[in-house]
Amino acid sequence: MILVRETTHWEDVSRQPNHTYIMDDSMSKSYGYFKWNNPKDFQMFSKPIKLDTRYRKFKVIQRGYKFVSEKESQNKSWVIKGSKDQQYVVEETENGYSCSCIGFKYHGKCKHIEQVKNESQ
Which end of the chain is less congested by CB atoms within 10 angstroms, N or C? Predict the structure, then answer.
């Protein structure tokens, strides 16, 4: 797989709607994208989608891009049930804890991490 940044210049558009995509080597399917090229805003597709690359320009950032599966991950992780029956993943990494919830995304802390810490003691 490859990581590519779209560099297309769209006419009559004030903010260029370009993103960074994870694609297969032939650039025919996309697995997900970093919205507005923001490394913290990744959207994964449930299934790979066909991406029409006609009339669009891309710059290859990295070849041989690889996802790390849960089996390959060395980090401890917990699935926590949220207050409205959502499920969040809390992961302990070498840099501390992280959570898949929106609160952690914006504040860097959340009640799900606190729950894991309290249960571990």
Answer: C
Which tokens is 35 given? 């919205």
Picking from 43, 51, 46, the residue whose alpha carbon sits closest to that of residue 23 is 51
Show me where the domains of the chain are located.
2-63, 76-120
* Dihedral angle sign, alpha carbons of residues 100, 98, 91, 82: negative
- Residue 70: what residue type? E
In whole angstroms, what is the distance from residue 10 CA to residue 116 CA?
A: 47
**Residue environment code for 70-98, b if the CB has 16+ CB neighbours within 10 A, otherwise e:** eeeeeeeebebeeeeeeebebbbeeeebb
> Quick one: pLDDT at residue 70?
47
